[in-house]
Design brief:
Layout (H helix, E strand, L loop, with lengths): L8 H22 L4 H15 L16 E4 L5 H11 L5 H5 L29 H19 L8 E6 H5 L1 H12 L5 E7 L2 E2 L2 E2 L8 H7 L3 E6 L3 H13 L4 E6 L22 H10 L12 H24 L1 H11 L16 E3 H15 L3 E5 L3 H4 L14 E3 L4 H14 L3 E7 L7 H10 L4 E5 L17 H6 L5 E3 L4 H13 L4 E4 L4 E3 L14 E4 L7 E5 L3 H14 L4 E5 L3 H6 L2 H8 L3 E5 L13 E3 L10 H7 L4 H10 L2
Parallel strand pairs: 1-2, 2-3, 3-7, 6-7, 9-10, 9-11, 11-12, 12-14, 13-14, 17-18, 17-19, 19-20
Antiparallel strand pairs: 4-5, 8-15, 16-18
The structure holds thiamine diphosphate and magnesium ion (MG).
Length: about 650
Amino acid sequence: MISITQDNVELAQQMADTLRILCADMIENANSGHPGVAMGLADIAVVLSTHLMLDPTKVDWINRDRLVFSGGHASSLVYALLYLWGFDISLQDLKSFRQLGSKTPGHPEIGHTPGVEITTGPLGQGVANAVGLAMASKYAKNIFPDAISHYVYCLCGDGDLQEGISYEACSLAGHHTLNNLILIYDCNQISIEGNTNIAMSEDISLRFKAQNWDVLECDGHNFLDINQAIENAKKLNKPVLIIAHTRIGKKAVELEGSEKTHGAPLGEKILKATKSALGFNPEAMFVIPDSIKQAFKSLSIRGLEARKKWESTHTQSIREIEEFCKPDLSTIDYPVFKKGEKIATRTSNGQILNAASKVINGLIGGSADLAPSNNTILKDSKDFPNGKNLHFGIREHTMGAISNAFASYGLFLPFCATFFVFSDYLSPSIRIASLMQAKVFYIFTHDSIGVGEDGATHQPIEQLSHFRAMPNLTVFRPADANENIACFKMALSLQAPSMFILSRQNLEVLSDTPNENICFGAYILKEASADPKITLLASGSEVSLALKSAQILENDGISTQVVSAPSFDLLLKQSREYHHYLFKESKILAIEAARSFEWYKFADDIIMMDSFGASGKGNELFSHFGFTLENVCTRAKALL
Ligand SMILES: Cc1ncc(C[n+]2csc(CCOP(=O)(O)OP(=O)(O)O)c2C)c(N)n1
Ligand SMILES: [Mg+2]
């Protein structure tokens, strides 16, 4: 079967029922999972299978269609489909669904299971990811018009559309008239607590129309109807929402339509009864009739042939795409900063970004309406979709998820930006980026109480510790413009996300060249006159204070060194020998204008923020909160 017609509806039905039972078996076997969504979406999944162009033998084919399951709790369906489509997943993997060490974790994770496009589970993220993939595809098509022609499909549920991120994302999708995006809404009007009418009564169709989408509806259990909707959606010139009216747990005996199917196995009795009702052997598990295997297989053979044909007709584009993905980073002409110069790291970072953008054609990104403050405008590029400057609007959460999508699309190095304090608004997406090890650069300026007059609401306090605690994410807080360059180079070398925490206020450039020792996370910026008794350990704007304090302590006869620590994460990764080389036998006083308890890993005492900030002049705030020469020297001496 390669497309749905009146003649093969019966076969389609058998395929869908096989999926239903397979998913229910996986969940029963694991004794955990979500049968409702899998059984409810099985019919749509079969129709979608006839539209998707995927080649299981080449999962990174750049012109493949993208399919995002925004409701990651449909993972059983994801894995069952990938198995039947012929991806590198075995029946055994389905049998070890959700078990430790399996290829089939509780929610789909990119990199873990071949064929999974992006990690989903936190509701709403996937919708925004799909918008991001459609944007990535649209920009890719602008650069490689012959080669890129695929669709982005996304399956989402009531929960995804309740989440605020979906409003943000769909607003942007409508604004950009992303006509390569088809969002299929599993409208079963059931979530965990029961009917969605307990918390939701808006008109979804009107909502999407107001956001410049086209809206279609179909019976989500009628193959011809679903197929017609998808066919129609492809012809429209806007992003399309297909509201598919479905029943959760479709065909589960006694439980169809009930929230009870949402998050628990059907149970032996009901599973057996359901199998009998559908003509399956009630006693057998994981049975897939050969005819069904063949039907799915024919779809993936079609994908393989499409990919081969694409490769043979786009040889020139393929060469260009390969070049695009391999910029010569050694040719980046970084700006030069001279010792003693005064420049905010947000400003130096803007210059670095622009220098890098000239070489890295895939460097693309923007800010949530703060580009002039974050210094993230790429001056020699146009606005998306004609260039690399993205305007996210004031939609931080979606900005994070769209950046994740750009990173997983396969051609781009995305960055996004806002004030550091508003990183909270996209933190859930940063968490997923970290889990996925997606290479995204976060540019967060206005890094501390140094923000000044905007006051406590705008002064990040606890964010630095929060992100340092996030696995796989490297946080950089450079002390000056040259450290900024070194941190940027380091970030380019990592295959994971990086975060730049940058000052609003000017900082003195402390050395003449970028210090390569930044790869260790911290390094000795100023040696002590003798074996150090005190180490002043600081990051960012507090490094200057440490240097001046060290001079006073030295004058008072206390040998003092200064360690600049732009990256706590990288320092943590170094050996005990390196830590000992760095700190020797000295007492360590850390200085950081944040809630930086983690420095107790190394430090004997910390001068940090013990409260929220306040409004006032930046320099007065630093004094007010104890970031003074006097306090540093007193606290240092108290350690001896
Ligand atoms: C951000 C977030 N909040 C809560 C959850 C927990 N959760 C998982 S599924 C779900 C209900 C989703 O309802 P719906 O999308 O309608 O899925 P259905 O029950 O129809 O399968 C909830 C609350 C989650 N995964 N992500
Ligand atoms: Mg639902």
